[in-house]
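[User] I have long wanted to understand how a fold can be written as tokens. Those tokens are not coordinates but codes from a learned vocabulary of shapes. Could you go through the record with me and say what the backbone is doing? Thank you; the sequence and its tokens follow:
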Amino acid sequence: MTRFTDVDRELLTRGYSRMVFDLGRIGGLLDALGSPQRSYPAIHVTGTNGKTSTARMIDALLRAQGLRTGRYTSPHLDSVRERISIEDEPVSEERFVQVYDEVAPVAKLLDETATEPLTYFDMTTAMAFAAFADAPVDVAVVEVGLGGAEDSTNVLQAQTTVITPIGLDHTEWLGDTLEEIGWAKAGIVHKGSTLICSLQPEDAMRPILERVADVGATVAREGREFGVVERNLAVGGQVLRLQGLSGVYDDVYLPLHGAHQAQNAVVALAAVEAFLGAGTERSLDADLVRAGFAAATSPGRLERVRNSPPILLDAAHNPAGMQATVKALSDEFAFRRLVVVIGSLADKDVQGMLEILEPIVDELVVTRNTSPRAMPAAAVGAIATEIYGEDRVHVVPSMIDAIDTAVTLAETDDDIEPGGVGVLITGSVVTVADARRLLKR
């Protein structure tokens, strides 16, 4: 057993999904570490869907501009090291252990005087901020874990903030209306900051604008100050014409699928423009913008991991995310037969996702992922049977067996030409992570 394995397990003892919303706790930890988060400027990203993809595109654009970047995203797909990336590379096991050994003794002292210990997310957030300071980085791109106002990352009080599309998710923590969730997300907007905001439902936009006014921030909104002008499909992705804050950028190739990724791209562009101070008199270098987007990746977001038959992984885990996935599949993939493997968490709107998927699915394989919060396969299957009927639903609790079943079902029609049949694995980030480990071994 390696020291990294020990550290990984020690972190897990803090409860992978345990939530404690108390900024004073991580604030105290960071103060004791010398406030590493004050060593660099940051771009802070929240929203319901598209946060990770947008953060990765912001990172790619900043690196194309010659800046040294740190990126903090969650959850991870394979290794916790993925959460803390420097120059688009996860920190090494050795470096991860070094940073943990700097943070853990201080955390232990704080835990001894607290009613309950710092969370898993508190620890990885503090480790990321410390690693970025040590690197050092020119700028950190930081994704919120949950919500915004009370999220551990909000100790940043970043001057450039981003809100991606808001929908109903995590309602047990953030509230069960778009307005309540909008208030939670808007909490990352601080005095004098600039907010780059995706197109939002009216109920979510209202509290965002109130927060902007209350703290004296500046807001730029998709559809007003910036937006996607034109979008054309291309091999492996799409070609875009983007209206940024400071100009129009033509012939931008994005190697990601879906109109939602084009939206994420223009939000990322506006965020980088705002961060770099580009205005009406100075645009970013168009060639560098093109280079940044061409290098963008987003693992687990309509990611192709096998070709025969094509197997796609997509981490959609709520109805809004699934709607975007279904649209992308319908618009950009010529599947005449589609088999879907789905596994979800018990606190998600599984029925909503299944109803959105139904029109494009020929066969549905229901499974269970490795999360302790996973909904049992039989329970998902019961919901699915009400929507799809018994003949199209196959309950296979083991993930590896579910994938094998899906491939067999996909290949049963010999009359379909190569490429006309596909498999989609979706429903949760954990489902995608489990499948990715099996398929990319």
